[in-house]
Amino acid sequence: MATEVSASKRHLSFALLLLVAIISYVDRQVFTLFQDDIKLELDLTDGQLGLITGLSFALFYTLAAFPIARYADRGDRRFTIALCVIVWSAATAFCGLAHSFWQMILARIGLAAGEAGAGPASQSLLTEIYPIERRTIVISAMLAASAIGISGGLALGGWLSQFVGWRSVFLILGLPGIGLGVSVWLLCAEPRRGKGNLTIPPPQIEFSEVLRIMVSNVSLRWVGLMLCMVPLTGFAFILWGASFFQRVHGMDKAETGFWLGGAMALGLVIGNLLAGWVSDRYGKANPRFNGWFAGLGLIAAFPFALGFALSSNAYVALGCFVVVKFMMTLHLGPIIALCYAQVSVAMRAMMSATINMMIGLAGTGIGGTAAGFASQAFAADYGEKSLQPALALISGCLLVGGFAAIMAGRTAKPLETQD
């Protein structure tokens, strides 16, 4: 049962947290549009770009996520989210002031640390104030908001590139987020707060016990394999997609922002919302359905991933990209709901942080970095088109991830009762 919060407060909180999810990915994704300019001005290689966009971000995202999620499971989630938004917004603005590889690394670390806590705390808060029958659609709507941020970051960055340089773009996009953080603190619901004082939340499961539960659960182990595989492909495409269209298909930044941003929005938003609706309709009574639904979508995405990477026609590549993102996006909302069905309320934020950790390390950390170094390795033979074989190679992870999702559904053991 959802915690009692007025409908107006619930909807206002939902709207603000949707905006937080959008802005987080705008700030993160806009970097990819300008990374070739940053590479040239800071004298970087593709491998160094991969470290900036990938490994450094993912490692510090992971390091920050767990202590913040631990606090969010017992503390004031509204304050947590607000502070995270302010930190990452300031870090985004600092990206525009960086003049070396290490300064840019530090800015990305600040961005990662801020973004690490907002997602788990937001999901924990929303799943408490919304009833169970609307939980998956709420989660999927948050994921769709992130998708809007990814595509919006590209489109907005591409439009701004016609008027200002990349440094000014980071300042323009970063600073307004500080006001959003203040708004979250002042206006969001937090059921744990009474008249200015925190109420006593349910006892929190120790982190060691969280790990023990996750490792001992066969279904969650399969989820872990899926979360190690799928983001390798997904984030390699997201982090290098803008450079791919600029290098391989000769698009300028405005064109890239418009076409790639639109393709991401179409695939990701529709996929997330459809996944939430299907999962709520068919997966509520049978959570195992979610694993099958996710797995089949991932397997179906594989041939289109190859089409995206290898096509010589920009618009065929864009069409394949839409299908890939649509089919891939069907997995995450249902899989999160499948995980939540197997753990108690007291460890949901920690579970969300674990999922984010695995996605971050595998996708942003390994996928983005590996694609950069693979492109660098293929450059001797393929020149400016080295991203084509690099992204084609990494597409095979979708098949492993699809099989793992199906097995996660087959072996799931939902708890008897969930609030």
UniProtKB/TrEMBL annotation:
Ranges of residues in domain Major facilitator superfamily (MFS) profile: 13-413
Protein name: MFS family permease
InterPro entries in the cross-refs: MFS (IPR011701), MFS_dom (IPR020846), MFS_Efflux_Transporters (IPR050189), MFS_trans_sf (IPR036259)
Keyword line: Cell membrane, Membrane, Transmembrane, Transmembrane helix
Taxonomic source organism: Erythrobacter ramosus
Main localization category: membrane
Pfam families listed in its UniProt record: MFS_1
SUPFAM superfamilies: MFS general substrate transporter
